[in-house]
């Protein structure tokens, strides 16, 4: 899903393409994922929002844990 964002750098307003991406990972893998994204996005100030899911199916939780470790 693409959209356009406005960010005011030091002296001017730019219009850049902006993408929203949703990634699921195990809680203990979040710091590594955030660091990976921050070093590779090439954005001046990437917005990274992390939400903890407090309720979901246990089999899905197990699947995410398995997939993030293979």
From TrEMBL:
GO BP annotations listed: response to metal ion
InterPro entries noted in UniProt: Ion_tolerance_CutA (IPR004323), N-reg_PII-like_a/b (IPR011322), N-reg_PII/ATP_PRibTrfase_C (IPR015867)
Xref: Gene3D superfamilies: 3.30.70.120
Protein family: Belongs to the CutA family.
Protein name per its UniProtKB record: Uncharacterized protein
